[in-house]
Task: inverse folding
């Protein structure tokens, strides 16, 4: 456990190095958030009755999405892990007295948290003081806020276990197919449009998939679109998929490693 | 020069075809990126049939035009899109000692065929939407469409050039340019007028993306008869001048990283 904590700390400090890049990224995320909200506003004006969430809920959803982009993005992570598999340096990692799967998970989690730490506070701070239709609101109750935090952490873990699967695919393709993985999860997790905007029959299926356990859950809990008993069910769904993806990933890694032949030299 | 470019072009084609699995998977990924955007538009329009007077098919036309301009720019000008890397690893020094125009050499240094995935996507949407969007195609309208795509492509190229120029000062790429390049493509799926007057003004007078998208689209859809709207994409090309000047200015400040 101590070893994993040290790994987490190391990765976290490493991620905190890129402060200028984070600043430049902030400007982009603000502009991006504004444009998203403006587009939804146009649709709201067109037909408020067909809007599946309250407008303020959509606004909160978008700002939180921008603030925690680094936690939930499925692209841009694991390139170094894929590289060790392709180059064969994985042989060194196998010689280390650490469980490889847990180590990867730890490293990716730490990188995500480090990037998110730099970015979320400024985005949230500004989004809270914007003028009305654009303003990010606090959740209605402390209970909702608490569940949001739990769900946020669980969602990040689910995304990360998914990223590990993405890396493991390299064992079979010998090339990175991150983009394919990322596009599927981005769309089904509600990164392109929130899941409530999906047509009804499709939404009912998509809400049961592991992707719904990613950003969809915490963002909708925060904005108050998922409350009460559906909130408990939502967190249970996240726990379920986290367990499945975690065990599945470990199993797949074991299986893939059987195919690995380490040559000397 | 054209012969040289074709030589480079074929070389890139051959080299990228060496890794066929990697090529097809990345192309598929690129297809999927704009496919998810398309699905998003479809789902939204399933719910709201009209936005600001534009119907689903009209929006699809807009989406196809912007996607095609962007993917063409990315296909050919990828060298500028990955410019920070070329600067960082010293490859740019090699470009400078060659007896040809710098911009030409950077353009020729990289052609990203995996972007064909996105291009294919826009072609498919065009095939679907051209007979269905309600436009009566006359020679003038076809010319407008061609101008929108070609000038749009050049405009994105100008933005890549600005992005590359910034890299001379920072060596790292600057993420904020993404809002204009990737953002221009993503938000360009809807006519820029729906984002409100301020955004439209900015995209008309400062970074003229609306000139290759919104105004000529009005002409195509018979919502405007003005010649100036039809020729707006050509006017947008004026934007390339400051882009080019900025690149020249930045180039003079260049210092090799030494690696």
Result:
């Amino acid at each position: 456990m101590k070893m994993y904590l040290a790994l987490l700390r190391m990765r976290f400090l490493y991620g905190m190095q890129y402060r200028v890049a984070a600043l430049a990224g902030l400007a982009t995320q603000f502009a991006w958030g504004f444009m998203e909200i403006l587009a939804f506003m146009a649709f709201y004006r067109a037909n408020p009755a067909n809007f599946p969430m309250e407008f303020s809920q959509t606004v909160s959803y978008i700002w939180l999405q921008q603030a925690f982009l680094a936690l939930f993005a499925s692209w841009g992570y694991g390139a170094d892990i894929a590289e060790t598999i392709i180059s064969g340096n994985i042989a060194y990692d196998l010689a280390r007295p650490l469980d490889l799967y847990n180590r990867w998970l730890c490293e990716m989690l730490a990188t995500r948290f480090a990037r998110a730490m730099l970015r979320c506070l400024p985005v949230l701070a500004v989004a809270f003081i914007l003028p009305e239709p654009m303003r990010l609101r606090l959740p209605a109750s402390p209970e909702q806020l608490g569940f949001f935090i739990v769900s946020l952490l669980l969602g990040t873990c689910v995304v990360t276990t998914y990223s590990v699967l993405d890396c493991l695919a390299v064992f079979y393709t010998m090339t990175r197919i991150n983009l394919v993985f990322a596009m599927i999860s981005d769309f089904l997790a509600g990164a392109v449009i929130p899941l409530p905007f999906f047509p009804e029959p499709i939404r009912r299926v998509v809400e049961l998939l592991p992707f719904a356990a990613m950003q969809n859950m915490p963002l909708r809990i925060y904005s108050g679109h998922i409350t009460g008993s559906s909130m408990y069910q939502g967190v249970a769904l996240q726990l379920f998929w986290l367990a499945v993806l975690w065990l599945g990933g470990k199993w797949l890694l074991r299986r893939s490693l059987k195919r690995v032949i380490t040559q000397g030299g | 020069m054209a012969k040289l470019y074709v030589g480079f072009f074929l070389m890139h084609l051959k080299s990228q075809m060496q890794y066929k699995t990697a090529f097809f998977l990345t192309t598929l990924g690129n297809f999927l990126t704009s496919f998810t955007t398309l699905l998003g538009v479809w789902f939204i329009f399933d719910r709201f049939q009209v936005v600001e007077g534009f119907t689903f098919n009209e929006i699809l036309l807009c989406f196809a035009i912007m996607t095609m301009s962007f993917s063409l720019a990315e296909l050919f000008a990828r060298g500028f899109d990955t410019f920070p890397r070329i600067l960082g690893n010293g490859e740019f020094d090699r470009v400078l000692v060659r007896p040809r125009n710098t911009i030409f050499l950077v353009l020729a240094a990289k052609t990203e065929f995996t972007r064909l995935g996105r291009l294919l996507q826009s072609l498919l949407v065009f095939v679907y939407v051209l007979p269905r969007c309600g436009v009566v195609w006359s020679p003038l309208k076809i010319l407008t469409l061609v101008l929108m795509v070609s000038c749009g492509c050049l405009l994105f190229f100008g933005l890549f050039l600005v992005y590359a120029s910034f890299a001379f000062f920072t060596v790292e790429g600057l993420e904020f340019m993404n809002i204009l390049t990737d953002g221009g493509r993503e938000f360009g799926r809807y006519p820029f007028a729906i984002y409100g007057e301020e955004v439209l003004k900015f995209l008309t007078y400062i970074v003229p993306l609306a000139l290759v998208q919104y105004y000529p689209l009005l002409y195509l859809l018979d919502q405007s008869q003005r010649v100036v709207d039809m020729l707006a994409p050509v006017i947008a090309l004026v934007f390339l001048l400051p882009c080019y000047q900025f690149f020249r200015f930045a180039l003079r400040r260049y210092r090799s990283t030494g690696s």
